[in-house]
């Protein structure tokens, strides 16, 4: 097999050993027998991939996979030139998904989510982050987090739950401060106490939360021991990149608009910049400043942003194509973006790399060259997906 090593260096004719539920060794196939002896491992099953590419399971570090309803009409409006904020102001956008999601039964929402997990797995995803965010009430968001846990229990792939504070609902805009206090004082602590989420994400932008409101909510998250993340700079730069970095945040996501100061703050904090090319292209936004992020040494992840409005797709291979052709990322950067850097954005040290001690989530591909996956992007290149028990 052709094996992707720790720095995306290919190991021609590589091999790995899985023992006791983890990857125990990775190296040249010629050294396999010696490695097994050194590890005192009895090789019970050998699979020859006959030159196929083997990679870590893909990690989708930004999705909104739990929702009900359909917004195809918004796609048609956008194709005629309507903008995201214009559609949202007319009652579309996030508000158009909130109603169907609230009205859906628990079982129906779980079934929809599990189906999306299955489709993602079929294209190589073995870990997916799922955000709440389509109810906008304290009780409703906690319900969505509990249903994410139910979907995760189906065992299709590994799931990382995130509490998302998405927007201020129309019926709470007259007293935004009280709503933000509710999120920070009730919702975040409740999610933390029940261990329903590993992180909190806040959408800081025009039409969403202000920088001060974001600071209030993320401060509460940090105080509760939850990791901090942010939807940042999709339409306007509110200074949230600096805010999230200052809180030691794991990631900032979108970044079509970010200042040099924001990039410097991300680099200094080691915060991952998550590229969401599906939404960027569909909304006809300028691409994030990939070259500036690269020059500053900011790690870049790539995610699907699976959601009903701006990126209704779960395929990370498709995002590899968009990242390389539309955002200007290199093939190596894009692959690291859906493996090692995506895992880092979720705080998962045991995923995203074929190294000793890692979880043996694996994908074999019917290609030898990693560039072949985004190059021939309309083909199903997946040979087999293995998700660790």
Descriptive notes:
With 389 residues, this protein is of the alpha/beta class. The chain has two domains: 2-56 and 354-386, Urease, subunit C, domain 1 (Roll), CATH 2.30.40; 58-345, Metal-dependent hydrolases (TIM Barrel, Alpha-Beta Barrel), CATH 3.20.20. It is built from 16 helices and 15 strands. It has helices at residues 32-39, 72-79, 84-89, 94-103, 106-122, 138-152, 176-193, 211-223, 240-246, 260-269, 277-282, 290-296, 316-325, 331-337, 340-345, 372-375, and strands spanning 2-4, 10-11, 14-19, 22-28, 53-56, 58-60, 125-131, 158-165, 199-204, 227-232, 251-254, 272-275, 300-302, 362-365, 382-386. The strands form three sheets. The protein has an eight-stranded parallel sheet. A five-stranded mixed sheet has the order 2-1-5-14-15, with no helix packed on it. A hairpin with a 5-residue loop joins strand 1 (2-4) and strand 2 (10-11). Helix 6 (138-152) packs parallel to helix 7, helix 7 packs parallel to helix 8 (211-223) and helix 9 (240-246) packs parallel to helix 10 (260-269). The longest helix has 18 residues, at 176-193. It is globular. It starts with a strand and ends with a strand. The relative contact order is 0.15.
Sum this structure up briefly.
It contains 16 helices and 15 strands. The chain is of the alpha/beta class.
The major β-sheet equals: 8 strands, parallel
Structural class, judged by helices and strands?
alpha/beta
Please estimate the helix content.
Answer: 25-40%
The count of DSSP E runs of length 2 or more, i.e. the number of strands, is 15
The CATH H-level homologous superfamily of the largest domain: Metal-dependent hydrolases
What value does the Rg take, in angstroms? 21 Å
What fold name goes in the CATH topology slot of the largest domain?
TIM Barrel
So, CATH architecture of the largest domain?
Alpha-Beta Barrel
Mean pLDDT over all positions: 95
Oligomeric status of the shown chains? single chain
Widest beta sheet: strand line-up: 6-7-8-9-10-11-12-13
Distance between the termini: 23 Å
Quickly name the level 1 CATH class of the largest domain: Alpha Beta
User: What general outline do the C-alpha atoms trace?
Assistant: globular
Strand content: 15-25%
Tally of helical runs:
16
Unreliable stretches: none
Please give the domain count: 2
């Amino acid at each position: 097999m052709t094996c992707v090593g720790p720095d995306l260096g290919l190991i021609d004719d590589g091999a790995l050993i899985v023992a006791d539920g983890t990857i125990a060794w990775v190296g040249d196939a010629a050294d396999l027998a010696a490695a097994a002896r050194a590890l005192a491992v009895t090789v019970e099953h050998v699979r020859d991939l006959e030159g196929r590419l083997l990679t870590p399971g893909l990690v989708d570090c930004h999705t909104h996979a739990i929702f009900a309803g359909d917004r195809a009409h918004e796609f048609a409006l956008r194709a005629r030139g309507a903008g995201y904020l214009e559609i949202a102001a007319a009652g579309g956008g996030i508000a158009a998904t909130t109603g169907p999601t609230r009205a859906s039964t628990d079982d129906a929402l779980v079934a929809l989510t599990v189906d999306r997990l299955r489709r993602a797995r079929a294209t190589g995803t073995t870990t997916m982050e799922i955000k709440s965010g389509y109810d906008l009430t304290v009780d409703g968001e906690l319900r969505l987090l509990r249903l994410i846990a139910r979907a995760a229990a189906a065992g299709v792939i590994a799931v990382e739950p995130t509490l998302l504070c998405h927007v201020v609902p129309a019926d709470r805009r007259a007293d935004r401060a009280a709503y933000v206090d509710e999120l920070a004082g009730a919702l975040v602590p409740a999610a933390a106490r029940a261990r329903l989420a590993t992180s909190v994400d806040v959408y800081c932008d025009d039409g969403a939360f202000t920088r001060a409101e974001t600071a209030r909510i993320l401060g509460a998250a940090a105080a509760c021991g939850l990791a901090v993340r942010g939807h940042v700079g999709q339409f306007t730069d509110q200074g949230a990149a600096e805010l999230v970095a200052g809180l030691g945040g794991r990631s900032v996501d979108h970044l079509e608009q970010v200042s040099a100061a924001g990039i410097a703050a991300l680099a200094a904090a080691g915060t991952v910049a998550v590229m969401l090319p599906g939404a960027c292209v569909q909304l006809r936004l300028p691409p994030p400043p990939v070259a500036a992020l690269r020059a500053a040494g900011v790690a870049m992840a790539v995610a699907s942003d699976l959601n009903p409005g701006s990126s209704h797709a779960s395929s990370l291979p498709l995002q590899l194509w968009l990242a390389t052709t539309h955002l200007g990322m290199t093939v190596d950067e894009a692959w690291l973006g859906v493996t090692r850097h995506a895992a880092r954005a979720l705080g998962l040290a045991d995923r995203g790399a074929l190294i000793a001690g890692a979880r043996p989530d694996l994908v074999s591909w019917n290609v030898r060259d990693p560039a072949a996956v985004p190059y021939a992007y309309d083909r199903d290149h997946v040979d087999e997906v293995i998700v660790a028990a």
